[in-house]
């Protein structure tokens, strides 16, 4: 018995040793040049936690592209010199947390950009806040993210701002009074979007005829749509991601439902047009990013992005691009790569003119800006007026 | 010196590793009676939600929450164990897989309690609670030359390590006890075991309940380490992931799942430097493993081989210890 216990302790000790030696390699590279300012330039390491592998890799790639482009431009300008360290979260909370821990403790980064999903931010945010590392979400739109702590910011437009904006405009134009809701109830993103839609509809005094739910990956929505059709709504509020949303629209149009749809942020993708074709006409979404805007900054970004990566930037790339500029601005104002000073400088960001438009943080670190409302007409996103 | 070595990142990875080891063991226990259960992700979820809700709404101490979480999971284990007794092999796997999905769907739809798919945030963090309790007694991590967050993760790691050692010790003991022999007999041949007078109903449900208890415990710890849980954490993917630990490491001896969980949790972290290719390599390793050693990396023969080597090397005490580990 005693011998067995000894062996057990031995094995455990051995495995932890193995573990330490396996991970020990990368600890040396941290520190050193990350802090301090030589010849007036502020050098800073910025960590990025992103969804690079797995089902949401498209988001991570877009974010990575936007950040890389911004970094090149910022370093060229020469006020600050940024070094980006990318870590993959694979879209999982525990992976995102270990990635953030690595950045905070092993790489000693000044600030973190990411993670991609709101669920990941719910886990990483408190940890970064406790460690005193400023963290900026570029794609986290759920309720309550910047409220996690003083060090948590975001520049992605929250659902609570985007959905009411699009709903107000749509209702004004179509004089809608009766609405039907449909949402995916097993996804954080669509569920939180639905909560906002419902609250806004109640606040506006709209009559909610029915509320239908669907699950991720569902392909037949006829049951829900038949019910919605029988109520004859003026407008359909759909909180769905684009892959399910496009199919819903397609089936609705085939069934003869021709009222406009108002969607959340996840519905806002050119993919909708690709999947649903003509059926996608009449989808109204609010977006922080509109690539056709006649602003030299926006057009410059679109051109450079296309040259570098061969495709048009989406909102994730644009938001990431702006986030790094905001951060670089804060680091410049802070004067050194000190986490606390950068946080204070970030909190003071006001009227920043980026490719998304005029941007400020409120006192909680949340977004103040006006989203653009778009509608699909003849297979193209155009500004909704 | 020590303070510099303690990096919360390593401790964080090590903590997840230990949780995965515990989860791996939970599948191993039910497998040791020949039952393949895929419900362990569901049991993990039950443990996590029970503990999280109890500690948030009733402000119970975390320890009570974790124990309650494990016990509720065990009760569910008994409840699901009894009706599925008649099922074997792949049929049992399907039913338990279905059970796991049912649990997830309950979490998604019982919105008043579980907050639906948005998940529960603000769960008391076990390390921070330990720290604030100790600070109440006038203890300060700086006495040990540690920073607060170093101490937080060190305490989580130590706690998990002790529990893991206890669990391994317990199931190793059980394996060579009356219960363990009964499990092994049932695994080899159920009918023969029954005709020898083994109460197979009792032992199979016992194995199920033990597996659920351990998985529920791991789930509760997971909730209090991440401080945020959502139904998606306990979906089908998790069940498969746990199963892979066992299949990879080997399901014959307890060291199989331990090694499997250890190696497969470490792998993605070590491979971080090749970023997007890391999961390809992870997949490749598993494929090669399955082709070369379908019974898992560690099996009885391998352990015996190690032992013989040690005996030749002059260690006497292992000589008479040839009973299966």
UniProtKB/TrEMBL annotation, chain A:
<dbReference type="InterPro" id="IPR028082">
    <property type="entry name" value="Peripla_BP_I"/>
</dbReference>
<keyword id="KW-0732">Signal</keyword>
<comment type="similarity">
    <text>Belongs to the leucine-binding protein family.</text>
</comment>
<dbReference type="InterPro" id="IPR051010">
    <property type="entry name" value="BCAA_transport"/>
</dbReference>
<dbReference type="InterPro" id="IPR028081">
    <property type="entry name" value="Leu-bd"/>
</dbReference>
<feature type="signal peptide">
    <location>
        <begin position="1"/>
        <end position="24"/>
    </location>
</feature>
<dbReference type="Pfam" id="PF13458">
    <property type="entry name" value="Peripla_BP_6"/>
</dbReference>
<protein>
    <submittedName>
        <fullName>Branched-chain amino acid transport system substrate-binding protein</fullName>
    </submittedName>
</protein>
<feature type="domain" description="Leucine-binding protein">
    <location>
        <begin position="46"/>
        <end position="375"/>
    </location>
</feature>
<keyword id="KW-0029">Amino-acid transport</keyword>
<dbReference type="InterPro" id="IPR000709">
    <property type="entry name" value="Leu_Ile_Val-bd"/>
</dbReference>
<keyword id="KW-0813">Transport</keyword>
UniProtKB/TrEMBL annotation, chain B:
<feature type="transmembrane region" description="Helical">
    <location>
        <begin position="89"/>
        <end position="107"/>
    </location>
</feature>
<feature type="transmembrane region" description="Helical">
    <location>
        <begin position="205"/>
        <end position="230"/>
    </location>
</feature>
<feature type="transmembrane region" description="Helical">
    <location>
        <begin position="38"/>
        <end position="56"/>
    </location>
</feature>
<feature type="transmembrane region" description="Helical">
    <location>
        <begin position="12"/>
        <end position="31"/>
    </location>
</feature>
<feature type="transmembrane region" description="Helical">
    <location>
        <begin position="242"/>
        <end position="267"/>
    </location>
</feature>
<keyword id="KW-0472">Membrane</keyword>
<feature type="transmembrane region" description="Helical">
    <location>
        <begin position="62"/>
        <end position="82"/>
    </location>
</feature>
<dbReference type="InterPro" id="IPR043428">
    <property type="entry name" value="LivM-like"/>
</dbReference>
<keyword id="KW-1133">Transmembrane helix</keyword>
<dbReference type="Pfam" id="PF02653">
    <property type="entry name" value="BPD_transp_2"/>
</dbReference>
<dbReference type="InterPro" id="IPR001851">
    <property type="entry name" value="ABC_transp_permease"/>
</dbReference>
<feature type="transmembrane region" description="Helical">
    <location>
        <begin position="151"/>
        <end position="171"/>
    </location>
</feature>
<protein>
    <submittedName>
        <fullName>Branched-chain amino acid transport system permease protein</fullName>
    </submittedName>
</protein>
<keyword id="KW-1003">Cell membrane</keyword>
<feature type="transmembrane region" description="Helical">
    <location>
        <begin position="279"/>
        <end position="298"/>
    </location>
</feature>
<keyword id="KW-0812">Transmembrane</keyword>
